[in-house]
Structures are given as C-alpha cells and as structure tokens.
Amino acid sequence: MGLLGRRYDKSGAGRDEQRDLNHALTAISAFWGWWSTVHEQIAAEAAAGGLSPEHTAEITAHVEAISKGLEWELNGPDPATHQLVVTAGGAMELRSLAQRWAQAAPDDPGWSYLPARQAVPAALDATLVVDAGRRISPAAAEIAARVDQRRAAVDVIVYHPVFADLADPWAREQIAALILSRLLGEDDVARWIRQVEVATDRPLDGIPAGSLPAVVEQVAARYAEPRWALLTGSTATGLPVVATIRFPLHRVDYPLADQHLAVVLPYRDRTEQRLPTATTLEALNDFEERLLTVIEPGAVLVGHETANGRRIMHVYQDAAEPVTAAVTELARSWRPGRASVAATSDPAWTHIVHLRP
User: Fold this and answer.
1) What would the pLDDT profile of 257-291 be if each residue is shown by its tens digit?
2) pTM reported for the whole predicted model
3) Which of these CATH numbers, 1.10.357, 3.40.1000, 3.90.550, 3.30.70, describes 227-355?
C-alpha cells in the first residue's frame, strides 16, 4: 500500500468552491420559497392520482437548479400523507446537497421531505413502472449475496426475469438499483452494498429478494460498535507507513461533511525509519485528543497516516460551517515542527480512497 502521495494546497478552499456552495444554497432557498406557493395544489393532484405536467416540470427545474445530478420522486402511503424525496441517487458527491435541501425544509402538515429513498416495508408487493410503461414485480427478483468481512460489505448479483428482455444494460442497472433501494433504503445501500452486478440468468446461489435485508442486518449488527483499522504499507522510496482509519467508514453517515482538512504535523524526533519515537507519539496522541475537542460534533476525524517524519490527519467538515480557523489555531501549538492545514472541497471523499481496506 502506497500512502502519503498527495500534496496539499495550503491556500484553503477556493473561491470557485465557495461560489458553487453559495449558488446551491440560493437555489435551495428559491425551491422552498416556490414550494410554499404550490405544495397544496401538488398534494391535491397527488391525491387525485398524479401530478400535472406543469408541476412535474417545475419541480424538475427547481431541483436541477440546485444540481443537475439530483433526482426527485413523490410518494404517498395514503391520500393525506405525502413524501417528497430529493436524492443524489447514489452519487456521494451530491449527498450533501440533498441533505442541505432536506434540512431547509419547512414543517408542512401531511408532508415529509427526505434526502434519500427510504426502504419500503411492502416493497415486494408494489409494482415498478419502468422502460416506457413496462410494469414489473420486485418479488420476482432473486439476489446472490456474498459478505466480504474484510471490507464489512456485501456484494450482490441481482436477477430478474425481465432482464433477458432488456437490451439496454443501463435499464437493467436502474431496475436493480430501484429494487435494492426499496428493500434497504438508499442510505443502507450506500453503507453496506459494495458491488452490484445484474444477471440475465438465475444465479445458482440466489435467495429471494425479500431475504436481503436480513443478510444486511447481520453485517450491520457485527459492526455496530465503532472501531479503528490499522493499515501498514510503504512509501515510493520504501519507508514504512502506518495508518489508522475508522472502520467501517461510511460517507453517508456524515452527509454534510463535504470538505477535507489535511492537518499535517511534521516531527523531528523520529526513528531511523522516520517513524515517531515514543516521545513524539505521545505528543501526536495529545494533539489528536485536543483536535477532537475542537472539531466535534460538526466535523469528523476519519483517520491519519504517518511516515517519513510527518503525520497527516484527515478531517471532514461541513463547508457551510467550517472549523478551519479553529484547527489552524490549534496547529500553531504544535512544537515538534511547523504544522499546516489545507482545506479542499471533497464531497465524494476521494482524498482518503487510498486508506480504504
């Protein structure tokens, strides 16, 4: 495993990133301002059986004004209750925008506003309308599920008889994604499902689709208590690297944490392999404890990596409520070397992909 390969820009989050965030927040405010004038009409249309083309187009336009990649759907378990979902559709780089939209929602009687598709208790009894009006039953799906304990994840193969009639692979993938999101909810799909394949032939080890939630619940129960994983590797020059990371680490559990802070702590007192001595390790642990008091609960320390005379601490924060100034002030107290703090927009958490088990 090669770590510590990234150079961090100490200039902080750029103007373009702040401008994009401001644009999204403005669009969210505009959405709710418009929604307050039409939601009663939309509720009446939904209760009567469907939205007008005009309102459908208006919702789409307002959602796309926040971000082109966001999706929406209107649900209602009964005529008096309605649910509007604006979702990233599994695109983690957009999850914070969906969350910001939901958190800005008003308290409208009879309405709920959600940033992800929810699990549907009667998912297998419902009918999905796809592919230009084709109606399919999720109950006909079978799923082969393989638990990867090393990664605390489940890999699945989704089969449905309709797949053999669909020439478009994208259509099959969309149906599989809808089935999974209704069985588990989008957030649990993001947490526990690592890889999804679709099959046109029934898998030999397939189980009824309705059994998948029980498989995922068993995995989730095993990792209910937070823990840290220890990773080892080497730099490009052969020096040892020691890293720790929260495990399992789920981006969706920190939906507003869309900005990365790299806290770089150099140290002079080190071993021949340029790892920290006992004295330095004590100082690093003390700094970490103080860092946690500064950043929590609005930001999260997801892990750190140590090699070649420095430790990089990886923090994710809410770009709308950053803790950069407080962390920078704390970094000035680091005596073993000259510390630095760099803020970068990273809503998909790409800066720590090399630390994933």
Assistant:
1) 999 999 999 999 999 999 999 999 999 999 999 99
2) 0.87
3) 3.30.70
